[in-house]
Specification:
The chain has 8 helices and 11 strands. The protein has 281 residues and is an alpha/beta fold. It has one domain: Rossmann fold (3-Layer(aba) Sandwich). The two termini are 36 Å apart. The mean pLDDT is 91.
């Protein structure tokens, strides 16, 4: 069980209520081989910060070693086909295109009139199929990625053409891979049971006057009910504007902006920028 205490909520877990309950896999959720008789889970909601977190006894510890890739993409060729399909979406239909335009616009304001992407580096944690890395590379950024699954890593290196580290971020240090002007977590931290330590560690890779970008599922999706993908089993957390602010602040960052939006795909999304506490944005 995860708890809003992990995010540093001042209520210390004292104001929780049960929200959505599930006794079977909802339509659209990937089949990760969980026995239907064991499928019992719910989301708890903190009524102070409106953070939602998953409560269950299902073992998901091996989910991202190979099962997630196999269930989602099939194999390396399936991964490549998905990458190509998303890359060919018109900008008005692409979550990733909108994301990259937003980050590029923010970077121009953040770094000032002398901003030149070719002089800036970005580390994408959880690079996935690489559409973000490819688009940022197209803008001129020097892009590095981190992935724990070797199939993703090989795809990022060979198909996307970016630097990819086959590691857990906790096993790396700036001495190993350097530091970066921007670090991105695109729909990654909701998959982490304890996101604060990971985000805090990421801060050690950020250049003194760099920024972090975090994108997460928004609890606004609850308005459409428990079948939404934001509440699928692989998501330990679903955030509110208050709890994404807590996440950044407890991880050592100063919040610059928080925005909620509906992506072209229909996903309810929160996105936030931050800088290391004490730095001037």
């Amino acid at each position: 069980m995860v708890s809003p205490v992990i995010l540093g909520c001042d209520c210390n877990g004292a104001f929780l209520e049960k929200a959505f309950e599930y006794d079977s896999r909802p339509d659209g959720e990937m089949d990760f081989g969980i026995d239907e008789s064991d499928y019992r889970r719910c989301y708890m909601r903190c009524t102070v910060c409106d953070h939602w977190f998953s409560k269950h006894k299902i073992d998901l510890s091996k989910l991202y070693e190979s099962q997630y890739l196999k269930s989602t993409y099939g194999d390396a060729e399936g991964l490549k086909r998905r990458y190509e399909k998303i890359s060919l979406l018109p900008p008005e239909q692409s979550d990733n295109a909108a994301r990259c335009v937003h980050i590029q616009s923010f970077a121009k304001d953040f770094f000032g009139p002398d901003f030149a992407p070719a002089e800036r580096s970005v580390l994408d944690v959880g690079g996935g199929i690489g559409v973000f890395a490819a688009e940022m590379k197209r803008y001129g950024w020097r892009v590095s990625t981190i992935e724990q699954d070797l199939l993703f890593v090989n795809h990022l290196r060979d198909t996307v053409g970016v630097e990819a580290f086959h590691d857990d971020l906790f096993d790396l240090s700036p001495q190993d891979i350097g530091s970066f002007d921007a670090i991105s977590f695109n729909k990654v931290l909701e998959h982490i049971e304890s996101p604060v330590p990971l985000l805090a560690h990421a801060g050690s890779f950020l250049n003194e006057h760099g920024f972090i970008y975090v994108e997460l599922p928004d609890i606004e999706a609850a308005c459409e009910g428990p079948e939404r993908e934001e509440f699928f089993i692989e998501h330990f957390h679903v955030f509110s504007p208050s709890s994404i602010a807590l996440l950044l602040e407890r991880s050592g960052f100063k919040v610059i902006t928080i925005e909620r939006l509906r992506d072209p795909s229909g996903k309810f999304t929160l996105r936030a920028f931050g800088t290391l506490r004490g730095n001037v944005a």
